[in-house]
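Kindly inspect what follows.
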Amino acid sequence: MQNIEFKAELRDLTLARARCQALDATFVRISEQRDTCYRLPDGRLKKREVPGEAAEWIFYHRSDRPVPRMSHFMLYSDEQARTRWGALPLREWLVVRKVRELWVLGNVRMHLDQVENLGLFIEFEAQVSRKHDVKTCHERIASLRESFGPILGESIAGSYADLLDQAQREPADE
């Protein structure tokens, strides 16, 4: 599967919700998510756990650039992940905890994320399909970036795990 993704800091959660409503996006849910991230030689892997739901493994390839970019991904159940990566436990890299508010507008998922120890972020994911080709997905993301413009902060090149890893490596201010 493929999608076009864009992630940025979010300046105001209340205004982001209001913008979603003004665009007639559909509110889906708020969920607490725990993503256990693993380092792999090829690609990225995380196990997503949400209370009351089956765990989901997400394996993906995506460049680290602060612009809308293509992501190739596969979703696996626990059983499928064991078949793919073996029964022995993988070596954990780090854990990202967040509260995610999910809104949907057409083929675009909008995530309003409150990430523990990092802050507020927004992510747009436009699902590529026969009906929505790559060009159309980029156009949808561009339109949303313009619409949310005043409440977007810096664009984010990597993953939350990358940001958390960087934050943990930086010396604490004294």
